[in-house]
Amino acid sequence: VEAALTRVLCAGHVGYESLPPVITRDGVVGLFSQLNQIAQELLVRAYRGDGPRNLHDLYENVSLVGYGGQSLAAHFDTSLGCPATSGFKHVTCGLTVSDAVATLRRAPRYEVTGALLRLAFKPLSPATLVADATTRFDLAVHVRRGDRLLQWRPVERIEDWEEGALLKQMLAMLGLSSEPSTVAASTGAASAVTTSTANVGEATRRGRRPLVLLASDDNNYLHRLASLARRASLRVVLLGNKYEAFDASNQSMESAKVCSSACVPPLLGMLDPFGRADRLILSSKSNLGGYLLSWWAAANAGRTAPVAFHDLDNVLRAESLPRRYFCELHWGTRRGLCSSDQSACDLKRNLQSKDCQQALNKTNH
């Protein structure tokens, strides 16, 4: 898959030089919503066999909305590693563009997404948020709260988990609870969950306490959850929200409205530790949650999916991975799950949407 993507992304002189502007709401948009939109544009084009003329030049031409307004090239490694002519055929396994496209369209969508982020979205100077860069976590949890809890549309509103209920889910995933866990591994590997969680439980009984990474945009909630986790004998590492802010009515403000360029390195710095977790709990309706799940695939080449996964919004089931993944990265589960040979408009649920109707009318004319 990586060789096929390299073949497409390194196509060179015939490629595109710009991307559509990202979608904003009231003139602002979150960092990971922007990155998901940009990654989606590259992914759609890669499935067609279209690559950028030059990734560095493309990223120089794409500036973040807010967050200091710097170009993507200021934050991401754009070298891509396109091989010189002499080694190109070897690195790309001798694939033609049509061969590469066929490979990508047969591959699991989650794997293709992870390979794209690994090749084209490697942070240039990732912040060191966890002291030991080799630490592997038994479980990583990100809880999106803040302004997203105030959304009135059900499709946008994320689930509000009480801390005790979330702790029960965490313990179940770690094999430390008699309650049945709702998680499962990727298709064909369900037994791996039982074995692995049992291993964690057995290790705990022998004196090894599971290591858990906890993150949230809501610092008060994060500390309450951490307190419960420690009382349950879990070792906890916290990634708090350094830039948490509240408006005049004491409502949480989204980071896009308050963040400068100083926010970007710490936000990108969350990727590395989450990529070093064996199990994940995330929100599939959160752009950050979705990007963290995509990054796990980028950081764990050769592994089809986390040992166990739970969606806080109860939409994405672990059995879907790796074959089916978000049809549109910036919409997460809100636009459904697709295989690599599908688009969002192939799903019946999206046929009446404005963009699918426009695409249908364009095809008919």
Tell me what you see in this structure.
The protein folds into three domains: 2-124, no CATH class; 139-321, no CATH class; 327-365, no CATH class. Helix content is 37%, strand content 8%. The protein has helices at 2-9, 31-48, 55-60, 85-91, 97-106, 109-120, 163-173, 190-205, 219-231, 264-269, 271-275, 287-299, 354-364, and strands at residues 139-143, 211-216, 235-239, 279-282, 308-311, 325-326, 337-338. The strands form two sheets. A five-stranded parallel sheet has the order 3-2-1-4-5, with helices on both faces. A two-stranded antiparallel ribbon has the order 6-7. Helix 12 links the parallel strand 4 (279-282) and strand 5. Helix 6 (109-120) packs across helix 12 (287-299) and helix 7 (163-173) crosses helix 9 (219-231).
> What is the percent of helical residues?
25-40%
How many discrete structural domains?
Answer: 3
Cα separation of the termini: 35 Å
The total strand number stands at 7
Largest sheet: 5 strands, parallel
Q: Shape from CA axes?
A: globular
Order of helix and strand elements from N to C terminus: HHHHHHEHHEHEHHEHEEEH
Strand order of the largest sheet: 3-2-1-4-5
Query: Quaternary status of these chains?
Result: single chain
Number of helices: 13
Helix/sheet category: alpha/beta
Which runs of at least 5 residues are low in confidence (pLDDT < 50)? 180-195
Q: What is the alpha-carbon Rg in Å?
A: 21 Å
